[in-house]
Amino acid sequence: MSEQTAFSKINCVVNSTVTPLIDKALKDLAIPEVYIQQAKQISLLDRSTWLGLRSSTKLEEARAVFYRFYAPTAYETGIMRRIAEAADLYLPGRGSIYAKTVSIRRKTPLAFDMEKLETLAGSGSPGKDNYAVIYCIVQRGAASSLAATVLEMGLCVPLISFGHGMGLRDRLGLLRITIPVEKEVIYFIVPKIDAELLESVIIHKARLDLPGQGFLYKTYIRAVAVNLHVRRGKRHYAATMEQVIATLDDLRGSSDWRRLGASPTEKPEQETKEELTCLSLIAEEGTLDVFGKAALDYGAGGATFIILELRSHQQDGEHSPSSHAREICDVVVSTGIKEHILAGMQGAGFFEGENPGMLEISSAHSAVTYLRLQDESKSAPAPGGP
């Protein structure tokens, strides 16, 4: 196993119609490995009926593609800006792109074309965390109502994907039939200052105070472009409200001016007292269950599995014709037991074989599950997905 190496993980969420532009930009940059996840973006559609005398609003779903890849941190901002400009992500409804610092453990190191990165992206220091991503795992069918609540607040455009869970359900014996294995994973990208407010809304709406209902965790990110197209419908003015908001964000230098919650001077954000780490295991599809169970045995509270597709953009600029099915398993654990889980993964052969696995390690700034809510005054068990 290679030494742990720090990178920037760049996530790009786009409407499916934009994917050819993203693919070309990644090919130009010769990104060696790109993981692709199928998803859908949810927005509100305003419609007029009865000769324009009555209006109605409904949820509208649009196919989306979720790209995730790794790059040297020095080129993070340049890469994101190049992709955002290539796909015109600054236009409302096109997509979002953001990054965070992670560590990677894998058998063979990632190889980048540094000359191309320097020429096409340019090096520099990454910006400050200006947004938060809240990941919420709920039972299949529960995501739409939760997305509608957040959309009505005008906070963000939710992204929904699908997976299956492992954890509490696997420990209940015959009672496991009461908790479905199929899960929906919702991603909310909001200004950092509104993250605590959104957390409280999700906890109440998703009933995370009940066992087996779901799990939530939050992490901070550096966003270059964020999709703010919450409502769709007839355009009445030269600029959309999303374009006006984006312009004001740029002029003011942050999104703090549009916060919905109290300012930090009035009510400081209450982070979890426990230091948390997110471990993302990526391996060949169908091989990850055994490693997920090993993580549970070593102290993880639960795990969520999502199907990915691996694509490779070779350094000679040619797009490799081969693509491979992969699976990702996310677990959020107490930082104190991280090394035990890493040792367990290595002992189980996770980093060996013809298609060895890869482990991504990043920080989680808060986590909410049933047990944590039941007794926040005590030392909570290692949190994890349902």
Tag the structure with descriptive keywords.
single chain, 386 residues, alpha+beta, Alpha-Beta Plaits, 14-stranded mixed beta sheet, 14 strands, globular
Overview of the structural elements:
- This protein is of the alpha+beta class and 386 residues long.
- It has a domain at 5-272: Alpha-Beta Plaits, CATH 3.30.70.120.
- It is 23% helix and 37% strand.
- It has helices at residues 19-29, 76-86, 114-120, 143-153, 195-205, 241-252, 288-297, 338-347, 370-374, and strands spanning 5-15, 34-49, 54-71, 95-105, 131-139, 159-166, 182-191, 214-225, 231-232, 276-284, 303-313, 319-334, 358-364, 366-368.
- Strands 1, 2, 3, 4, 5, 6, 7, 8, 9, 10, 11, 12, 13 and 14 form a 14-stranded mixed beta sheet that branches.
- It is globular and about 65 Å long.
- The protein starts with a strand and ends in a 12-residue tail after the last helix.
- Residues 168-179, 265-272 and 374-383 have low confidence and may be disordered.
CATH domain class of one domain: Alpha Beta
Q: What gross morphology would you assign?
A: globular
From the coordinates shown, what is the CATH architecture of one domain?
2-Layer Sandwich
Helix content, binned percent: 10-25%
**Percentage of β-strand residues:** 35-45%
Low-confidence stretches: 168-179, 265-272, 374-383
- Tell me the CATH topology of one domain: Alpha-Beta Plaits
Compute the separation of the termini in Å: 30 Å
Order of helices and strands: EHEEHEHEHEEHEEHEHEEHEEH
Compute the number of strand runs.
14
Q: What value does the average pLDDT take?
A: 80
Judged by helices, strands and strand pairing, the structural class is alpha+beta
The radius of gyration computed from the alpha-carbon positions, rounded to a whole number of angstroms, is 21 Å
For the sheet with most strands, the description reads:
14 strands, mixed
Number of DSSP helices?
9
